[in-house]
Design goal:
This is DUF2867 domain-containing protein. The chain is an alpha/beta fold and about 525 residues long. The chain has 2 domains: about 15-320, Rossmann fold, CATH 3.40.50; about 350-500, START domain (Alpha-D-Glucose-1,6-Bisphosphate, Chain A, domain 4), CATH 3.30.530. It contains 14 helices and 20 strands. It has helices spanning about 20-35, 65-75, 95-110, 135-145, 165-180, 195-205, 230-240, 255-265, 270-275, 305-315, 360-370, 380-395, 465-475, 480-500; strands at about 15, 35-40, 60, 80, 115-120, 155-160, 160, 180-185, 190, 195, 215-220, 225, 245-250, 350-355, 415, 420-425, 430-435, 440-450, 455-465, 510-515. α1 (about 20-35) crosses α6 (about 195-205) and α3 packs parallel to α4. The radius of gyration is 24 Å and the shape is globular.
């Protein structure tokens, strides 16, 4: 299958996998700005619906472990970007990575793709691969598989990526901001060459135009080589924080390090552990050959302090376009909400409540859309905090992922331990639970106008239990629903009334808690 002709103006047709992730979601607009056409591959295309670039790119459904969907996505492609990995999917993630890379390389060769571009991890010099962390070892193996695919391949290898919303940046940020005095693992003495996300995107974009005879790895990094301790001290200086006292100790194993990071930062243990393990060895660039292929830009590559300052500015201005949590957490439920007309999936328990409020529907929606993160959940804060801690202890994401933007949501956004599954501005917010549960759960928040200065708020929690454990879970937490869900209804409408300058009314809420048996689903609202 031969690629489509290159469009006038020299633009290429690029396939981007991992477009719902941190790097992929930022690379697509960069490629479009560079004059290329983009096809984005996603397991759930709906998750990309609200991105600003969606109307300029083609979005297709597919999975890199499914050869047929990869083959279809490769049709007519010049450059294929491989920006996915199976980290966090369990003990077999290395085999999943291996299989996906082979499928990607084979289908790229069969489709006549001109180049593959892969972003991997920088590995330490002189360290046998068997001694690397599973995370770095798998990244290196994926790079080799793609280089051996028969398609000219560019493998970019980066260490710590500094950018608003990156896992590495948020780990650094929260450790430094929350702990003026730290007892730290010995890896804080390890030398690292961090790189700004802007420079990573520049290298990825420029790689599309590399000559056909190039098939190799390139190390990419910023101008500074620092220990993690120095990175924390310099972050504190840039952020205007008092100098931190850092006391390294030799007793914290990677597992304990991950627990420590998970306790202090929003990064869950499943992600914190490979990040910590990757810092055991020195990761410094051994060459800078990528500079021959990346157009020079004054001031680039960015130094560490500038990278941190830019990232902090983005955070403070609420202009974080993607976060480490942009991609769905592996192993969490992704099933769509059972639709009432045709769902026949067994029991579905619901808790439904509603309340009218003397406030315009726009004000009610403002409160609804700003829920979660620093704004909280409008009820029983201790209960929410405890549930978040239980989830983290069970290996889940917990309640500290927060939100990408303090006031605006889009489909696919992570929101504490929820994921935005559907949003109809001014009307509906539907969240899907990503906490560890013996079943599937959703929370729907609806706003309906009842006139110019009056609105109705409707709230529905749904739970589809898995087995006897799921049934037991629902009935064990049902007694607390009046505090949690009832409190949400009262406080959300109260906040809307206060925002509209109206006294809060005491209209009664309506609640139903029931199970819809197979073939008899609950009514819609």
């Amino acid at each position: 299958m031969s690629p489509e002709p290159t469009p006038p103006g020299g633009g290429l047709h690029c396939l981007v996998t991992g477009a719902t992730g941190y790097i992929g979601g930022r690379l697509v607009p960069e490629l479009l700005t560079a004059g290329h056409r983009v096809r984005a591959l996603a397991r759930s295309p709906l998750a990309l619906r609200d991105h600003a670039w969606t109307d300029r790119a083609e979005v297709v459904r597919g999975d890199v472990t499914d050869a047929a969907s990869v083959a279809a996505a490769m049709d007519g492609i010049d450059v294929a970007y491989y920006l996915v990995h199976a980290l966090g999917t369990g003990k077999g993630f290395e085999e999943t990575d291996r299989r996906a890379a082979r499928i990607f390389g084979e289908q790229a060769r069969a489709a006549g793709v001109r180049r593959i571009v892969y972003l991997g991890g920088l590995t330490p010099a002189g360290v046998p691969e068997r001694e690397l962390s599973p995370h770095l070892r798998s990244r290196a193996e994926v790079g080799r598989i793609l280089l051996d695919s028969g398609v000219p391949t560019t493998v970019l290898r980066a260490a710590v990526i500094i950018g608003s919303g990156s896992a590495s940046f948020e780990m650094l940020r929260y450790l430094t901001e929350r702990l003026p005095v730290m007892i730290t693992p010995r890896w804080v003495r390890t030398r690292i060459q961090p790189v700004a996300v802007r420079d990573v995107l520049r290298a990825l974009t420029a790689s599309a135009d590399m000559p056909p005879d190039i098939n190799r790895t390139f190390d990419i990094g910023g101008p500074d080589v620092l220990t993690y301790r120095e990175m924390m001290l310099r972050y504190a200086a840039v952020a205007g924080l008092p100098r931190r006292l850092i006391l390294p100790v030799p007793v914290l194993t990677p597992r304990l390090s991950a627990l420590w990071v998970g306790l202090v930062t929003p990064v869950p243990g499943a992600l914190a552990r490979p990040l910590a393990e990757s810092l055991r060895h020195e990761v410094v660039c051994r060459e800078n050959d990528i500079a021959r292929h990346v157009p020079e830009v004054p001031g680039h590559p960015l130094d560490f302090d500038t990278s941190v300052a830019l990232a902090l500015r983005r955070v403070r201005e609420a202009r974080v376009t993607t976060r480490w949590s942009s991609a769905s957490v592996p192993g969490t439920p992704s099933d769509p909400l059972p639709t009432d007309p045709d769902w026949a999936g067994g029991s579905l328990y619901t808790d439904e409540r509603e309340r009218t409020v003397d406030a315009p529907v726009e004000e009610l929606w403002r409160v609804v859309e700003s829920i979660g993160g620093d704004n909280g959940w409008y009820s029983f804060p201790l209960g929410w905090a405890v549930r978040g801690q239980i989830d983290r202890l069970a290996g889940g994401v917990g309640l500290r992922r927060g939100r990408r933007d303090a006031t605006r949501l889009r489909i696919g956004d992570s929101l504490d331990f929820w994921r935005v599954e559907e949003i109809e501005p001014g009307s509906l917010l539907r969240l899907r639970a990503e906490m560890r549960l013996p079943g599937l759960a959703w929370l729907e928040l609806r706003c309906e106008p009842l006139g110019e200065r009056r609105a109705r708020y409707r709230q529905r929690a749904l739970f589809h239990p898995h087995g006897l454990l799921g049934q037991a879970y629902w009935w064990s937490v049902a007694p607390f629903h009046a505090f949690v869900f009832g409190g949400m209804v009262r406080n959300i409408t109260r906040a809307a009334a206060a925002g509209a300058g109206e006294p809060e009314r005491s209209d009664d809420a309506r609640k139903t808690g029931r199970a819809a048996d197979r073939g008899t689903p609950p009514s819609t609202h």
